[in-house]
Hints:
The chain has twelve helices and 20 strands. The protein is an alpha/beta fold. It is globular and about 65 Å long.
Amino acid sequence: MKKLSPSRLTDERFMRVCLRQARRVVGLTTPNPAVGCLIVRRGRIIAEGVTERGGRPHAEAAALQRAGNAARGATAYVSFEPCAHQGQTPPCARALAQAGVARVVVGCLDPYPPVRGRGVAALRAAGVEVCLGVLAQECRRLNEGFLSRVLRGRPFVTLKLAMSADGRIATASGDSRWISSAPARRLVHRMRREHDAVMVGAGTVAKDNPRLTCRIAGGRDPVRVIIDERVALAPWSRIFRLRSDAGAILVTTRRRLSAARKRYGSPMVEVIGLPSVNGRVALSDLMRQLAGRGWCKVLIEGGAHLAARALSEEIVDRVCLFVAPILLGCGLSAVEGLEVLRVKAALRLANFRARRVGSDWLLEGEPVYRARSRPKLTAH
């Protein structure tokens, strides 16, 4: 293992503080990335800042305002490249230079075209020393949703499933409350806060009548996205009648759009129609539309058929499986309709990891998609 210099160790220590700050606002800064900033003088933090709700003000502006004249000659630590363009706020790179900051340590570059290296270039042109790439992987991971939207034109998608040890998400009678433990359910509420939208299929709404809100202090509700091609859900379902700033979106096919608007249309529900294949909404088209709204992260919470469709269409970036230490025997499989004929064709998870959450285990991994052995989706 390569030994790090004392200065590099110091830079990493302060960058970890930036990341801890930014982690507190993940999901609250959309459409902007969540960024942390420190102003450090003689090894002591004199000011801190994070990107505020809605993306403004930026972390650098907040930290510089708190530092005042003490920023002159200091070192600034920023987890994401400072912006260099005039948007709804002035360029942060220029603000850092004008404040007299002597050195800026940047976690990772911002791929957004108006920035993309220009912030670093502007700082260097102003005579500011720049150290780039400190804990870059961690900084990119923190804003994986923003990076996905900018680089791939779609949000980062997480598939979350709560299941028994034998892979069931409900009993034979359809009962699923509660498979996971209370600590696991609290973690799911934090996940909802960090995602711009939570998506479910019509079957989950009909069976569970969920709220899909974020019920933790300081949280925010994700927009609730319901896939309903058959326009068969009860208009009085709780998900359509909740009073929330986030609202709900009913997604159906273009052919059923008029009928869906008549059935579900209300000030609290937006109804959209999308292209379909064999009567099913194309989820990839939906993801592009959600990215166009500035959304960075989408959480799919069920059910089993929607999980299979999302994996089949290769829109899932991370799988989170909450596995409870119970056995249900006959019941609903976690992923229903994904047909794999040979073990070699199985959809594998990279970076597979596990940790305890209450009495449950949380298993996580990133699907590895291979076009030649792509699992088929069976009709249902």
